[in-house]
Amino acid sequence: MITLVFGDFIETSSAFMKIMKMVVEKIETKFDQEKVIEEFEDLTKDGGRIQEETLKKILEQNGGTEYLEQWGLNGRTDPQTFKNCVPIVTHNDLEPYIQRIADGDLSPILTGKPVETISLSSGTTQGKPKFVPFNDELMESTMQIFKTSFAFRNREFPIGNGKALQFIYSSKQFKTKGGLSAGTATTNVYRNAQFKKTMKAMCTPCCSPDEVIFGPDFHQSLYCHLLCGLIFRDEVQVVSSTFAHSIVHAFRTFEQVWEALVVDIREGVLSSRVTVPSIRLAMSKLLKPDPELADTIYKKCSRLSNWYGLIPELFPNTRYIYGIMTGSMEPYLKKLRHYAGELSLLSADYGSSEGWVGVNVNPKLPPELVTYAVLPNIGYFEFIPIGGNLNGMEQANSPVGLTEVKLGEEYEIVFTNFAGLYRYRLGDVVKIKGFHNGTPELQFVCRSNLLLSINIDKNTEKDLQLAVEAAAKSLVDEKLEVVDFTSHVNVSADPGRYVIFWELSGEATDEMLQDCCNCLDRSFIDAGYVSSRKVNAIGALELRIVKRGTFHKILDHFVGLGGAVSQFKTPRCVGPKNSSLLQILSSNVAETYVSSAFC
Question: GH3 C-terminal domain: from which residue to which, for each copy (predicted)?
Fold first, then answer.
């Protein structure tokens, strides 16, 4: 009798402990929106003090490293000493130190604790990815950004328990010479257990299984992302990706494969185009014959006019579309709005492979006007005043601190983080649009090194975008659009000239494209460019029309180098060192037009 009671007690206690563990886990993972906002408000009320504390923490953790010891800080952690002793650097300056870490040198080179993971930048700008240290502190700041952004977003666009159709892809991870794990920054985040835990707490778990996200072939992963979204179409509340380009690319692909997706759903059998065994197995657990759903999707797609409003038609409970939509992503907004219909476009937060900068706390602002409030505890920030000099930004412009920036002024960001980057020039130009308590709200302007320049001319990525938009207006009446574009400065010609590459959605007449070419040339209104064109110090602009699918080949090339689709950005200016991209573009030119605008 006693044994039975004792046994029952053990069994009951075991069950009780399991229940309590589940309760504790639920409490731990429950997302407290108001608490997150309150913590953010407290952080930003005294940005100056938080910045000093953050720098002190960084230097206390890493002051004994080889890199910092050479600058004679001698244990001092105040901002003035730090600025006086430690130089402002670029990635080229730190590359030898990072390479030694990647090669297996375990001594404290840049950080006090050993670096175990390397992030790769996208590599779309310079033609090859950069190595950047990645550690637990960077992961923590990533989750802080995600939570803060979601809290403000969810206050304006509340969602319930549902799923997110996330077009996210992992790149191939590999081991460096020294045995460190290396992958794109997005891959390092997606593979971290904190990411999935945070997404679940924020009620936005991904529709797709891990096998799809981490699949070796992004074409197959994309097909299955779309299929998973359709299977869970009534549960999808958010459609997102890292960059707007990935969302547009996904739905351009949908236009081509939607009938195959309908067949898969109707029959409950995955298309033979998906060949990766792990993906097929994972999808077989989700995919069951559903003729009713297949009929619904078929009817909705058949009734759409030119695919306008595709996303809300497919996913009726979607609240918004989310991703980075600024900078080089702005040219995709027109197409994204076409797919989105009346849905809101919400721009994601501001960061880079090197680390995070700011969070979007005003989600109702359209992407073209979005600003980012700097989180003062994720790094130490400095700002080099531009003063109208984009081409060079000499050190004569002394950097100012987070609380010293002025409204309406433009600056290049310099930051120091917990992963071994000290006074690092991020290469981004931002404008101060306002302040949230004691921290500035930044608007991204352009990359400082993406300049079209031959003589005294200086045209930025934004100038290029505006010129393309102006020239492309004449295509609208013919229901044509510029699918994608890039540029190149041809200095081998005499005189040097701008070359603009366009991929179009269809065929245009020679007369129309010649007009577009002339309009492009006239739309670069920089005084140095105009005056140089008038005296033929800069040659006539060339518009080169490339074959359909050329920019897809560029994407495939990028992925083939180990990049992740999630991290892909079409390079808006292809430099001479990026010979592989120039080769892809040049070998796919269908027609060339030479401007007669200044004849």
Answer: 462-575
Residue 109 carries which DSSP code? S
Q: Whole-model pTM?
A: 0.82
Instruction: Give the chain's largest Cα–Cα span.
Output: 107
Spatial contact of 417 and 58, defined as CB atoms under 8 Å apart:
yes
The position carrying tokens 């004569």 is: 396
Residue spans of beta strands (DSSP E) within 387-541:
400-401, 410-416, 424-436, 439-447, 451-452, 459-460, 482-490, 497-504
Which regions of 128-196 does DSSP assign to beta strands (E)?
131-134, 163-166, 174-175, 181-184
- Cα–Cα distances in angstroms (integers) from residue 40 to residues 144, 437, 453, in the given order: 10, 10, 41
> In a 10 Å sphere around its CB, with 0-12 CB exposed, 13-18 middle and 19+ buried, how is residue 15 labelled?
exposed
Write out the two tokens for 248: 């547009």
CA 25 to chain centre: 31
Q: Is residue 423 a contact partner of residue 382, using CB atoms and an 8 Å limit?
A: yes
Contact 183, 567 (CB under 8 A): no
- Spatial neighbors of 538 by CB under 8 A, at least 6 apart, are 454, 455, 457, 495, 496, 497, 498, 529, 532
pLDDT, one tens digit for every residue, the chain (599 residues):
333 333 443 344 444 334 334 333 443 457 788 999 999 999 999 999 999 999 999 999 999 999 999 999 989 999 999 999 999 999 999 999 999 999 989 999 999 998 888 887 766 555 567 888 888 888 888 889 989 999 999 999 998 888 999 998 876 777 888 888 777 777 777 777 777 777 677 667 889 998 998 888 889 999 999 999 999 999 999 999 988 999 999 999 999 999 999 999 999 999 999 999 999 999 999 999 999 999 999 999 999 988 999 999 999 999 999 999 988 888 899 999 999 999 999 999 998 888 899 999 999 999 999 999 999 999 999 999 987 554 444 445 789 999 999 999 999 999 999 999 999 999 889 999 999 999 999 999 887 776 788 888 888 888 999 999 999 998 988 889 999 999 999 988 889 999 999 999 999 999 999 999 999 999 998 888 998 899 899 999 999 999 999 999 998 888 777 666 767 788 888 888 888 899 999 999 999 999 999 87
